[in-house]
Amino acid sequence: MTPATQSEPVATATGQVSEAVLSVRGLQAHVAGQQVVEHVDLDVAATGVTALLGRNGVGKTSTIKAVMGLIGRSGQITLEGRDIADLPTHKVAQLGVGYVPEDREVFSALTVTENLRIAERKGHDHQYDLVYDLFPELKERGSQAAGTLSGGQQQMVSLARALLNTNRVLLIDEPTKGLAPRLVQEVGQVLARAAEVVPVLLVEQNLQVVRDLANHAVVLTGGRSVHAGPAAEFLNDPDLTQRLLGVSTGAEGAV
Ligand SMILES: Nc1ncnc2c1ncn2[C@@H]1O[C@H](COP(=O)(O)OP(=O)(O)OP(=O)(O)O)[C@@H](O)[C@H]1O
Predict the structure, then answer these.
(1) Residue-wise pLDDT tens for the chain (255 aa)?
(2) For the stretch 14-45, what's the b/e string if a residue is b when 16 or more beta carbons lie within 10 angstroms of its beta carbon?
């Protein structure tokens, strides 16, 4: 008998991923009466990291917020084939869509441990072993007020809160923003380990981090998805990155 083979996500001719945990089609979203997402199609691959890229203000954060139901949206959003486009945020989270917001949103006055406790989702297993294995420092600093942590440490708390619950997919918005190079590397390593247990949609401006982590890339311009395909292929095309991101990336190793 032929052993069963694990199927790998394969990019189709249109650049979409044939095996996706989360799929978005024709997404539109509004903030303060303004249409900030015009037409986004994207697939988050069932394994590894899918990067959501684009220049400032093209709608990356708004796309993620729209998936979470945090801003008004229309279009198709499916999680493992289930329609979640009309669900409120708490239901989307309950179904296993984890969200790590750009501004980290830790509760400053609460301790690190309290920040984790408050993130425990009802009806889910809570993976404290995984979290403390990834972030030993958070155990050591359990009784410290989160507001007194450094930016990098607060980012760890934010990631840990999402990883605590068993997610089907994690949406992570600019986790390395404003961090010193050493911390960028540290966060990158944590993300790599996180992506071994849960597929990730990652908004990230640091293209070296994208190069290190992402298998697939979706690129937005002006609220629209305009490119999807293998991340390495995209990053190795200096003309395309210049046109879509405004930066020219070179061959392997040079971002
Ligand atoms: N609360 C708001 N009120 C008005 N306009 C907003 C608001 N939030 C976002 N926008 C606008 O929506 C557009 C998309 O913003 P969004 O934050 O989604 O882009 P982004 O690609 O994530 O940008 P960045 O990379 O700078 O974080 C921008 O033009 C932004 O100015």
Answers:
(1) 333 333 344 455 455 665 899 999 999 999 988 999 999 999 999 999 999 999 999 999 999 999 999 999 999 999 999 999 999 999 999 999 999 998 778 899 999 999 999 999 887 789 899 899 988 999 999 999 999 998 888 888 999 999 999 899 999 999 999 888 888 988 898 899 889 989 999 999 999 999 999 999 999 999 999 999 999 999 999 999 999 999 877 654 445
(2) ebbbeebbbbbbebbbebeeeebbeebbbbbb
Amino acid at 208: Q
CA of 136 to the centre of ligand 1 (A): 34
Report the nearest atom of ligand 1 relative to the CA of 205. 25
Of all protein residues, the one whose alpha carbon is nearest to atom 24 of ligand 1 is: 56
The answer for residues whose C-beta is within 8 angstroms of residue 27's C-beta and 6 or more apart is 37, 39, 40, 41, 42, 63, 66, 67, 73, 74, 75, 76, 77
Mutate to test the pocket of ligand 1, among 37, 53, 61 (most ligand atoms within 8 A of CB): 61
> Which residue has its alpha carbon closest to ligand 1 atom 23?
57
In this prediction the ipTM stands at 0.94
Ligand 1 centroid – CA 252 distance (Å)? 31
**Residue 137 Cα, ligand 1 centroid: separation in angstroms?**
33
Domains located in the chain, CATH noted:
20-104+167-245 (3.40.50.300)
Name the pTM for this structure: 0.88
Pocket of ligand 1 (CB under 6 A): 31-32, 34, 36, 54, 56-62
